[in-house]
Amino acid sequence: GAGVSQSPSNKVTEKGKDVELRCDPISGHTALYWYRQSLGQGLEFLIYFQGNSAPDKSGLPSDRFSAERTGGSVSTLTIQRTQQEDSAVYLCASSPKGLPSDNEQFFGPGTRLTVL
Amino acid sequence: KQEVTQIPAALSVPEGENLVLNCSFTDSAIYNLQWFRQDPGKGLTSLLLIQSSQREQTSGRLNASLDKSSGRSTLYIAASQPGDSATYLCAVCNQAGTALIFGKGTTLSVSS
User: Fold this and answer.
1) How far apart are CA B30 and CA B20, in angstroms?
2) Residue B63 forms beta bridges with which residues?
3) Which one of A34, A83, B4, B89 is CB 3.0 to 4.6 Å from B36, fit for a cystine?
4) Of B51, B99, B103, the CB nearest to A59
């Protein structure tokens, strides 16, 4: 079946602009995660959504970052007033959370963001 | 704060060798541990998931072990092939199941 998809695959923007990154999780998966992968920092957790519960935003690096998940499916990560240090690959993952054995996370191909 | 360390950072081996990648974590209160593969410019591919109650998982030429009490996991790759060249990432899931905490990876190069 279809995996996690993300769009765009690449995004180049100017410092100070806002950007939106989109994630379509695997159909039926209730949990959705955003991560960031930057040079030297490795992969960092940003935010987690589970069904209709309040998201875990503990990984968001600043208030310029926000995310929403509409209808329990598609998610959008928004970065306002982008800075050069925001340049990274943004990865989305989903999992069929409900049972401990279902907690494997499946990742999308990522969006490479470059802030000039 | 949970920290995940992977050793070595890079490894080069000739084709056919068996090899071991190491992962250690500081807090043994984990939900599960997952090994991923990442090819250059690509996303992550899940290789093996070990629940906290399990000791090992096998898939083809891959075998992953977990020793939760000592905070260690190993990924064993048998009869390595050039197609195995990639970065291998280890990640532990926190007790709440809300986030994966990743190591920085081991970049493997298998020469023919």
Assistant:
1) 22
2) B58, B76
3) B89
4) B99
